[in-house]
Amino acid sequence: MAENTESSGNLLTRAVSCGDRSKVFSRFGQRPSYSFKERVIRYTLRSFSWITIGVTLFIITILFWDAIELFRQYSIFDFLTGTKWEPFGESKKLGILPLVSGTLMIAIGASVISLPLGFGTAVYLTQYSSKQMDRIMTPIIEILSGIPTVVFGYFALFAVTPFLQKIFNRVELFNATSASIVVGISCIPLVSSISAEALRAVPLSIRNAAHAVGMNKFNVVTKVIVPSAISGIIASFILAFARAVGETMAVTLAAGASPNMEWNYFIGIQTMTAFIVQISLGDTPAGSIEYYTIYAVGLMLFLITFTFNMIATTIIKRYREIYK
């Protein structure tokens, strides 16, 4: 049986190498199959791709259309440069900078936690731990990505904030620090998984060559393996930052609803996503200027996250190392 398999493999290799592919591939040189089954599969998959693109374009169109409706009633310049966000009442002030400020505070604070912890975890699991430890630790870390963000929000409100209040007297019930901590924890699996994949993609031959010239383990990791995987690592950092920018329920519950530009992590703030949740509770009449602020803020959030995703994609394409 083994001899027959080996002889078949040799005939296949010989036929392909000699250029006589018609003996190996029954439809070599012919047009693709247009049988009924093949057409159904082809058109079904094509329709799935077009549906995905169509839904995406539809969402973007709705955001732009209703955001323009707001800018017909309120100056876009004042919207982008104003430092007061007071959408309710007679005298409305719709400067989005306080919401952007709160969003960046959460994203930066979460990055301070998630980037070193996630990257350090990836380095340990791929370079220092045993295979058994890797098999045990990786699923445990991935569990964090499956925890609902509303759970993180209540954890911040009832566990993290009381702990911070025992250490610092000036910490309010709703504050940016506890929100940043739980959002950072939720982003650890993203950084860890993408960085680990980038580190595992570095060929073993490069590592062995570094050991062959006398480099110790630490120098091999820091001066050879990490620089070789730097594009994937930086991309994981940017994607984690964008993930923190778009976080909703955790910051809504933990950070509060007080838009300001003080950059004080011990007081309450409001992010763009938290405002969308607040305004979408059902008390805002459709067609009002408050109603259209949802789409304007959503459009700004989309543009910010889209920009970060494009930066990550560009970095991966520009600095990716291709090994053969």
Notes on the structure:
The chain is mainly α. Helices cover 72% and strands 1% of the residues. The chain folds into two domains: 1-30, no CATH class; 93-319, MetI-like fold, CATH 1.10.3720.10. The chain has helices spanning 2-17, 36-73, 76-81, 97-128, 131-146, 149-167, 176-200, 204-212, 217-228, 230-245, 249-254, 272-279, 289-319; strands spanning 85-86, 93-94. A hairpin with a 6-residue loop joins strand 1 and strand 2 (93-94). Helix 2 packs across helix 13. The two termini are 34 Å apart.
Tell me the layout of helices and strands.
Elements lengths: L1 H16 L18 H38 L2 H6 L3 E2 L6 E2 L2 H32 L2 H16 L2 H19 L8 H25 L3 H9 L4 H12 L1 H16 L3 H6 L17 H8 L9 H31 L5
Antiparallel strand pairs: 1-2
Helix pairs in contact: 2-13, 4-7, 4-10, 5-7, 6-7, 7-10, 8-9, 10-13, 12-13
Characterize this entry briefly.
With 324 residues, the chain is an all-alpha fold. The protein has helices at residues 2-17, 36-73, 76-81, 97-128, 131-146, 149-167, 176-200, 204-212, 217-228, 230-245, 249-254, 272-279, 289-319; strands spanning 85-86, 93-94. It contains 13 helices and two strands.
